[in-house]
Specification:
Strand content: 35-45%
Number of strands: 45
Oligomer: single chain
Distance between the termini: 55 Å
CATH topology of one domain: Immunoglobulin-like
Helix content: 10-25%
CATH architecture of one domain: Sandwich
Largest sheet: 6 strands, antiparallel
């Protein structure tokens, strides 16, 4: 923290913006106040970060860069904004300096950007005979409108150019569409007749010059009264543009538009709105933060479209994660109002949901209105997990109590029968879900053979075919087999092959396939976890070893899938195919496969019908929990390519990634396996199956099942959402064979 007159001057009348949870400060240093030896004007900059322990902003040492080109300036104005650099794909702080000559005949503009090395670098300069208003900073490019025309200049252009718009526009409104590559557009009214009685809304993409119907963004009556606008979402469906936006009008209204139609309105408490920002408070929802002329600010809940809070006497307002807790907060700097101190000493940080830090508003002493904020998202997730675990334990205890009650009732009934001389009738233990601790009379004859069968393998150690299914996905067929496997007799090198019926030929043709193996959850009795930890009688252990029921503790469920092209099947005229299972069996898990003997098992036949319904139940309704939906999910996991990425965020927690995928991207959770999220935008070729696993609050693993193009599009959206400090690294080659574990319902 630097002390001195130069630092005090920087923070006394600052121009502020926020980036990555920090406040960046800019200020103009006149020639008379410059350092010795430097008679020219300069722009100073520094940054300040919030420290919760002291409830203050710690200010860093300032730096300065000289600006020249005009000997004397009657007036100097600074505008700073964070703009997206399209070439470098990073958010860059930009400073636009306006210097007016003494006679007011010319205006000289200088654009500077703050590099990653914290240096303010000049980009370009240009001179205009007028003062531009309503300019837009982007990439770094300066856009503005004047006299019904749109102009722009950039480092690549090298000069001021006019964007050729074929039709004249009036009442121009700038905005940006949040598409995969954000595009700046301008809306305006075009008069159809010379008498200006008939008008329509036209929109133009400033960078490409493409025209579109502007009424899908703002309807005609609102273009002339809109003072500022924020586009929330934009997408193209069947060539049509779908837009959701909010606009603050000169009639003191905040209006929500959906595809050009008014969906909701909220009266605003102040006049002359100037800017709209969106704050994401996590599970508490979104807030629109509207700034007004003369230092007024209000916040509006997005869900209810009602006023949340209002403030006055504000010098600047910012939305960012200043506390580093993974969600946004609103930072308001207040005018001192006669109180001694720098502008950064009078502030309020709040999310209107329990987080509140303030300093210098009422007294000179620091004031903390709330304890240190916790990461509410992670806390709630942990509490929900503990609640679910406790509920499961409670249900198991209740089930055991019911079993004990039935045993006590049957014991009392048996005692009454014996004392009354009635015939004793006992219910078989299997009917009550119990296991006998001794053999019945009917099984006593088998006791002599128990020692002989003690060490023998299972009666049938081959995998048991539980179900055979198939799906047609575009030009491919997916065949799947659900197996019941005894884990005490491991199998390896499991795969499927498809054989075509060849008529008179004795040797069937083998279709080339690619197989995958997926482990499935096995339904087990509720008391299996406790029973497996207790010693059992010898007779019971013997019978379990030769059992092959689905509830056997040694039984595992496995899904083996194979995918093949439909062309060989259709060319051969085959309508039925035989499915063969190939595997290698060994006696125990510790034996070496020195000379493995492959085993082939016939699974059944599938009929190929290209006239069947290609729209699967999973795509129709991901909320279903049927066997068909499970098979649809296995089909997608087989057909789609798979990528796995490791995300590391050293500065911000990743607790809201799952919520962003569901709300912003528009995915639906697959209830049959909740670890997956499904995004279906336009048919099977655009399918995306996502899986997000939180490792730590700052690390996670993202799996993407899709085509390569869809994967790149999704990563582009994710990189635009994540902070700049995040790193996304691939952790696995998609071409390597893998075994996937499918979570239970």
């Amino acid at each position: 923290m630097m002390e001195g007159s130069h630092s005090e001057e920087l923070y006394r009348n600052p121009h502020l913006l926020s980036l990555s949870g920090k406040i960046i400060v800019f200020n103009h240093t006149p020639a008379s106040c410059a350092k010795d030896g430097d008679r020219g004007e300069s722009i100073s900059h520094g940054h300040a970060s919030f420290e919760r322990a002291s409830c203050r902003f710690l200010k860093a040492a300032p730096r300065a860069v000289a600006i020249g080109g005009m000997k004397t300036s009657a007036h100097v104005d600074i505008r700073c904004k964070c703009a997206v650099d399209v070439q470098r794909r990073v958010t860059t702080p930009c400073v636009l300096v306006t210097r007016r000559s003494e006679k007011g005949a010319s205006f000289r503009y200088s654009l500077l950007t703050l590099s990653r090395s914290n240096r303010l670098e000049p980009c370009f300069e240009f001179t205009l005979p007028y003062e531009m208003k309503g300019s837009v900073l982007r990439g770094p490019t300066v856009l503005w409108s004047h006299a019904g025309h749109v102009f722009y200049t950039s480092l690549q252009a090298g000069e001021v150019r006019q964007r050729q718009i074929p039709l004249p526009l009036s009442h121009c409104v700038f905005g940006e569409l949040p598409l995969h590559r954000g595009q700046v557009f301008v809306l305006g009214l075009h008069n159809e007749c010379e008498d200006q009685t008939t008008s329509r809304v036209l929109g133009y993409m400033v960078e490409s010059g493409q025209a579109f119907d502007g009424s899908v963004v703002l309807p005609l009556p609102y273009v002339g009264i809109t003072r500022c606008m924020l586009v929330l979402s934009a997408d193209k469906e069947d060539g049509a543009l779908k837009v959701a936006a909010v606009a603050a009008t000169s009639h003191q209204q905040l209006v929500y538009f959906q595809n050009g139609n008014v969906k909701d309105t909220c009266p605003l408490p102040f006049q002359l709105p100037e800017d709209i920002q969106l704050a994401n408070t996590g599970r508490n929802g979104f807030l629109f933060v509207i700034s007004f002329h003369q230092g007024h600010v209000c916040a509006v809940w997005k869900e209810t479209f009602q006023i949340a809070s209002c403030w006055s006497g504000v010098s600047s307002v910012h939305v960012d994660d200043f506390l580093g807790c993974g969600t946004d907060q609103i930072l308001l700097f207040f005018r001192d109002g006669g109180v001694k101190g720098l502008p950064l000493d009078h502030f309020l940080i709040t999310d209107l949901c329990g987080i509140s830090y303030s300093h210098g508003q009422d007294t000179a002493a620091p004031k903390q209105t709330s304890p240190l904020p916790e990461n509410n998202l992670l806390t709630l997730q942990a509490l929900e997990s503990r609640l679910q675990s406790g509920l499961t334990v409670l249900q198991e205890l209740q089930r055991e109590v019911r079993v004990k009650d039935r045993v006590v009732q049957q014991s009392v009934q048996a005692l009454n029968d014996v004392s009354s001389g009635r015939e004793l009738v006992l219910t078989p233990p299997e009917q009550e879900g119990l296991s006998a601790l001794w053999d019945s009379d009917d099984e006593s004859n088998d006791e002599a053979s128990d020692d002989k069968t003690q060490d023998m393998p299972a009666v049938s150690s081959n995998p048991q075919i539980d179900k055979l299914w198939h799906r047609i996905a575009e030009d491919r067929i997916v065949v799947g087999v659900i197996l019941m496997i005894d884990s005490s007799v491991p199998v390896a090198s499991v795969s499927l092959s498809i054989l075509t019926e060849t008529g008179q030929s004795s040797t069937p043709a083998v279709i080339q396939t690619q197989s995958q193996v997926l482990w499935l959850p096995t339904p087990c009795p509720s008391s299996s976890s406790s029973a497996s930890t207790l010693p059992e009688p010898a007779a019971k252990r013997c019978r379990q070893r030769i059992a092959s029921t689905p509830n056997d503790l040694n039984t595992c469920r496995m899904a083996v899938t194979a995918v093949s092209r439909l062309t060989p099947l259709l060319n051969s005229g085959c309508v039925k195919c035989r499915v063969m299972l190939h595997y290698v069996q060994r006696q125990d898990a510790f034996s070496l496969l020195s000379s493995p003997t492959p085993v082939v098992l016939h699974c059944g036949q599938v009929a190929v019908d290209i006239r069947s319904d290609f729209q699967t139940q999973l795509l129709k309704n991901p909320k279903l929990k049927t066997d068909e939906v499970k098979e649809d999910l296995l089909c997608l996991l087989t057909v789609l390519d798979r990528w796995v990425f490791h995300i590391d965020s050293p500065d911000h927690s990743l607790g809201d990634i799952d919520g962003w995928i569901q709300k912003i991207v528009g995915c639906k959770r697959v209830d049959v396996s909740p670890q997956y999220l499904l995004f279906d935008s336009a048919g099977p070729s655009a399918l995306i199956l996502l899986g997000w696993r939180q490792i730590t609050p700052f690390q996670g693993e993202l799996s993407v099942h899709s085509s390569q193009l869809q994967m790149l599009k999704f990563l582009d959206s994710l990189l635009a959402y994540l902070p700049v400090s995040c790193s996304v690294q691939p952790v696995k080659d998609k071409n390597l064979p893998s075994v996937t574990h499918l979570c239970p319902c």
